[in-house]
Amino acid sequence: MNENLGQTIEQVKNLILKKEYKKSEALICTAMFQYPDSPIPHNLMGLLLESKNLHAEAMRHFRAAYALDPAYRPSSWNLECFGSFTMPHLYAFSESDCSVHSNQKLKSGEN
Predict the structure, then answer these.
(1) In the Cβ-directed half-sphere of 59, how many Cα atoms lie within 13 Å?
(2) What's the rounded Cα separation, in Å, for the pair 99 and 85?
(3) Is there a contact between 78 and 51 (Cβ–Cβ < 8 Å)?
(4) Dihedral over alpha carbons 20, 86, 109, 106 (to 10 degrees)
(5) Can you state the angle between helices 95-108 and 73-82, rounded to 10 degrees?
(6) Going residue by residue through the chain (111 aa), what tens digit of pLDDT does each one get?
(7) DSSP readout, 17-37?
């Protein structure tokens, strides 16, 4: 992963958690322009939209991220998580979030 995208993930994560949606959207749009073939900006946009309760729009971005790179785990995680009525909605901003969330599921006895 590009170092700049890694920084963007952390910045967007912090902004979303603070509900600073306009700033996070600006960062994500810049990343989409700079890295049009990367799934990362689309995954981040999906998380931003999901945090604003715009579920259908969020799912479109998760699917776009998956289409760009099916091996990118956060987009697969978010598609499964937010597309399910039974899974807890745990955000996967990066690869490490997928591992942490998988461990949490195993400890709680979920599949």
Answers:
(1) 9
(2) 21
(3) no
(4) -40
(5) 50
(6) 678 899 999 999 999 999 999 999 999 999 999 999 999 999 999 999 999 999 999 999 999 999 999 999 999 999 988 887 665 567 788 888 887 555 554 343 444
(7) HTT-HHHHHHHHHHHHHH-TT
Cα-Cα-Cα-Cα dihedral sign, residues 17, 15, 94, 70: positive
| 46/25 Cα distance (integer angstroms) | 11
Q: What is the DSSP letter of 2?
A: -
Third-level CATH fold of 3-108:
1.25.40
C-alpha 38/C-alpha 24 separation (Å) is: 17
